[in-house]
Write a structure and sequence with these properties.
This protein has 381 residues and is of the alpha/beta class. The chain is 44% helix and 15% strand. It is globular, with a radius of gyration of 20 Å.
Length: 381
């Protein structure tokens, strides 16, 4: 996941669920409620969209514990799925949705783009629902799951009872039935997540590679590639040359980048290397499919510009707060020309409710969070 204040996102990654969540997270979750309240709204967790021949994007619908998107590559006799969401029941729901609407071919390969909880914690479902599937990741990602997976989940679960108490207070202070329902749903989803994840042990990948692994299927080739550090130390992409599609996890997606575990000085260069693949469509870990290479350049440009400015500020002895005050969204050239609006709209456009945060506030909040994360990541080796 993605873009948020450090406090907001890390609280979800590491600790406290929705408590202290950023405006973006709140906006995204409120969209869930709006959809859930629409008459006849389907209960599927994903919207599956055909991207090219034999390639599909499963776009995650909003949830209190965010699910990542999945990319689905249909091979001659089986399927390769990229990423496994935040919990086994979400991955199981995707497998059921695929069987119902897309293909009865078995999932044979599961690729984990990187180690984060919202991309890996569902992996266990494949042991049950596709027992012959091989789970594949970079060598670094396997190490990061074994190092951080269990501890981060544990820390996040320990913070949730306090979150629920807070939501209950907010629910009883609610000023409208909508607001009450919103907190009610948040409480229900948080309780369900706690119940499901209690005692969960991270599933370890079966197969790892350092730089390249090519699957030579009868239907097409699938190139799994690690091209350098970026969002984490181990991000891989999956590229299909015949379909001209690349699945990028959180190395590139349609929200603001999430940088707390990242390498902001190396990330833009890694993305430029990924751009050497001849693709026309990007299935990122969050937000909509991108149908050109344009967003890659904008996303990389934003990280590069922000990193340069944070570095300059930090070198000159400015505090984090001073840097956050001096780098406004309007002062960032990389957000001009429509990119800032695009990302802001990605987060809030799906909800027609009046109560939502405005895109401008969401953007400002995300930039402040990114600045804090870069400030902390600059000296990471
Ligand atoms: Zn991530």
């Amino acid at each position: 996941m993605h873009s948020h204040t450090r406090r907001g996102f890390l609280s979800q990654t590491l600790g406290a669920g929705f408590l202290g969540a950023s405006l973006m997270e709140q906006a995204f979750f409120r969209a869930t409620l709006a959809r859930a309240q629409a008459p006849g709204a389907p209960t599927d967790l994903f919207d599956i969209r055909k991207v090219a021949d034999s390639v599909y994007a499963a776009l995650a619908r909003p949830a209190a514990f965010v699910n990542c998107n999945a990319a689905i590559f249909e091979n001659a006799n089986d399927l390769l799925v990229v990423d496994t969401h935040s919990k086994p029941s979400a991955a199981a729901a995707l497998v059921a949705q695929i069987r119902r609407n897309l293909s009865t071919k078995p999932v044979r390969y599961v690729v984990e783009s990187h180690f984060h909880w919202d991309h890996t914690q569902g992996a266990h479902a494949y042991r049950e629902h596709a027992p012959n599937a091989q789970i594949i990741s970079s060598t670094a990602t396997r190490r990061l799951i074994s190092e951080f997976g269990a501890a981060r989940l544990q820390a996040s679960l320990e913070g949730l009872p306090a979150s629920i108490d807070k939501y209950e207070q907010q629910m009883s202070a609610a000023k409208s039935p909508e607001e009450k329902a919103y907190f009610g749903k948040l409480i229900a989803e948080t309780r369900a997540y706690m119940k499901e994840m209690r005692g969960y042990q991270p599933e370890m990948p079966d197969m790892t590679f350092d730089e390249d692994l090519v699957l030579h299927d009868k239907a097409h080739e699938l190139h799994m590639a690690f091209r350098g550090r970026g969002h984490t130390a181990g991000d891989v992409v999956v590229f299909c040359p015949e379909a001209k599609v690349v699945a990028t996890g959180d190395l590139l997606h349609s929200w603001f980048p999430f940088i707390a575990d990242g390498y902001p000085r190396e990330w833009p260069r890694t993305l430029q290397t990924v751009a050497d693949f001849d693709f026309a469509h990007v299935i990122g870990g969050h937000g909509d499919v991108q149908d050109s290479k344009e967003r890659l350049g904008q996303f990389a440009g934003y990280i590069e510009e922000l990193t340069e400015r944070v570095e300059t500020g930090k070198r000159s002895g400015q505090t984090l707060e001073q840097i956050q005050a001096s780098i406004t969204p309007a002062s960032l050239k990389s957000l001009a020309g429509g990119y800032g609006e695009f990302v802001g709209d990605q987060i809030v456009h799906s909800d027609g409710q009046q109560t939502l945060a405005k895109p401008a506030d969401v953007i400002a909040d995300a930039v402040r969070g990114n600045i804090a994360d870069i400030y902390g990541a600059l000296d990471r080796t």
